[in-house]
Design a protein that fits this description.
5 helices, alpha/beta, Rossmann fold, binds ligand FNR, 6-stranded parallel sheet
Amino acid sequence: MMKLLAIVGSLRKQSYNLRLARTVRERFADRFELRIADIGSLPLFNEDLEDRPPEHVAAFRRQIKEADGVFVITPEYNWSVPGVLKNAIDWASREDRPLSGKPVMVMGVSNGSVGTLRAQLHLRQILASSGVQADVLPPAGNEVLVRTGGEKFGSGDGLLTDDKTLASLDRKISKFLEFVESRKEGR
Ligand code: FNR
């Protein structure tokens, strides 16, 4: 079975973005295995740590390397990506650069009206940088911009319940799976 990894840009326990990752894991359990990376345990990036990086950094890079594809699922903070996500990507952009050539799909949930659009534009720029060079699913027709998250998830730790959003998610994730398969065949 295909193995995918989710990198979630929020550390909040009841994060909508984390709950979107869990929704994807549950909904597609018969198509792929989804691990959710623990980026909250990564140290702040510091070049001085690079000679002997903490074990958690090595484990994070290994998880990316072992995955057939990666979902980056993030909120928008101040019109950009949260620092914790940038920190994780910075760690993944060094040494063996595990994101290089890796199929990636971007998604996000916000409580506002533009559904992380500005964060995703920055994120796409970061993922294209020379240190990262991820193989990102093109945005046309594939953007997952979940607006007004508060109205679309169950209470507490609840998963995504909005039917229209779920139908659109199913379509776009199926396209990502085809994208991942096509990259595997091309290898
Ligand atoms: C936000 N939020 C926010 N929302 C948005 O649409 N655009 C923005 O620029 C920001 N900026 C921002 C900065 C900071 C520091 C915080 C804490 C929040 C609101 C954000 O969308 C909301 O808190 C989401 O619920 C966060 O995602 P999770 O934690 O639910 O995944």
